[in-house]
Amino acid sequence: MRLDAGQFEVVDDQMADILRQKTGAERLAIVDGLFRLAQELVTGAVRAAHPTWDRLQISREVARRVSHGAV
Q1: Which SS3 state, helix, strand or coil, does residue 22 take?
Q2: Is the model's pLDDT at 39 over the cut of 90?
Q3: Residue 33, SS3?
């Protein structure tokens, strides 16, 4: 599925029901897991694009990308 600028993906009713049954802590755990996965994927992309960078350079670039430049 392709989303254009200004569009967002809507959770279907079945998934919404499943998420409503989760506790707040369970929903936070899901978000945390997704965020960590995003960091891992971005880290891999940065490492592949910049094989000579050290860990600190990679960490800084990952933080910049994940935070949309806020860091």
Answers
A1: coil
A2: yes
A3: helix
Q: What would the two tokens of residue 59 be?
A: 């960490």
User: What mean pLDDT is predicted for residues 27-52?
Assistant: 97
Number of neighbouring beta carbons within 10 Å of residue 10: 8
Q: Say if pTM beats, i.e. exceeds, 0.90.
A: no
Residue boundaries of the structural domains of the chain = 22-66
Q: What's the CA gap between 59 and 53, in Å, rounded?
A: 10
Given pLDDT bands bounded at 50, 70 and 90, which one contains residue 8? Answer: confident
Cβ atoms of 46 and 38 within 8 Å: the answer is no
39/17 Cα distance (integer angstroms) = 28
Whether 30 contacts 15, CB under 8 Å: no
